[in-house]
Amino acid sequence: MGQVPAATRALRVLRFLASQPDPVPLDRIVRACELPRSTAYHLLNAMIAEGFVVHLAEEHRYGLGVAAFEVGSGYSRQEPLQRIARRPLAALVDRVGHSAHLAVLHGRDVLYVLEERAPGRPPLVTDVGVRLPAALTASGRALLSRLPAAQVRALHPSADAFVDRHGRGPRTLSALRVLLVETRQRGWATEDGEVTPGLASVAAAVVDHNGHPMAGVAVTYESPEDPDDPGSRSDSSAVDQAALAEEVRRTAALLTRRLGGTA
Q1: Which residue intervals make up region (Disordered) (predicted)?
Q2: What is the distance between the alpha carbons of residues 263 and 250, in angstroms, rounded to a whole number?
Q3: Which of 6, 32, 98, 177 has its CA 20 to 30 A from that of 127?
């Protein structure tokens, strides 16, 4: 534990409460945070007084308070992820000569929060604020591959959860699982023509200190219109995908370390 054990314990409790779908009883907090019952009780009372926790007396449960919401809102207003990522993403574009972007999971979609365009490269659909199906995008696959299988299943409960843009990409949970296993084994995700014909992407996940995926870093480059037709290949097909992916992984690892995670 750190040099300020009370603060460390309080933050541990807040992080646990934030991970729960509903308020929880004291015993759950004691077990999950590995705290003596009396210590947990006093910490919770202090956080209740400051507005970070609420006590639902009738249910004998504790949940997050308004002050915790204010902290989360402040995080959103300050856009720390975008601020941390802006320069590394620009440096990535300078190194590889292709456009790059940063995306976060939003339900079963990815939401693009930052884009750096390379000069002379074609325009992309990944403008800031755009949402696309995570299962079709390299960024989304990089993020989904780091989630528990149960969470992936919950996000894709039926065939209706899958979107078909250009006749490519997974249409079932089992097909998506195969892609995610390949992604985990490889260490980076790919997508070719499933979002925009003629464009391909490679991506890697940025994770926090718990190994939870925070964002996906991706680079998009020109590819053949039809990967199965050698006659459709152009000079742009000579892109070294593995080398490009290694640069993306370097950037994702840098952002992971800056967020306190382990690359």
Answers
A1: 223-242
A2: 9
A3: 177
Residue ranges with strand state E in 75-124: 99-106, 109-116
* Residues 152 and 176: beta-carbon distance below 8 Å: yes
pLDDT band at residue 234 using 50, 70 and 90 as cut-offs? very low
Q: Taking CA 92 as the corner, what is the angle to CA 89 and CA 95, rounded to the nearest 5 degrees?
A: 155
End-to-end CA distance of the chain: 22
Within 10 angstroms of residue 168's Cβ, the number of other Cβ atoms is 15
Q: Is this structure's pTM higher than 0.90?
A: no
Per-residue tokens: 193 = 């023509």
Confidence of residue 98 (pLDDT cuts 50, 70, 90): very high
Contact (CB, 8 A) for 24 and 13: no
| C-alpha to C-alpha distance for 155 and 118, rounded to whole angstroms | 33
Alpha-carbon radius of gyration of the chain: 21
CA-to-CA separations, 199 to 62, 79, 133, 159, 225, in angstroms, rounded: 49, 29, 16, 25, 8
Structure tokens at 8: 């460390």
Domains of the chain in start order, with CATH, are: 5-73 (1.10.10.10), 79-258 (3.30.450.40)
Distance, in Å, from the CA atom of 113 to the CA atom of 178, rounded to the nearest integer, reads: 28
CB burial of residue 87 (10 Å; 0-12, 13-18, 19+):
exposed
Count CA atoms within 13 Å of residue 43 on its CB side: 21
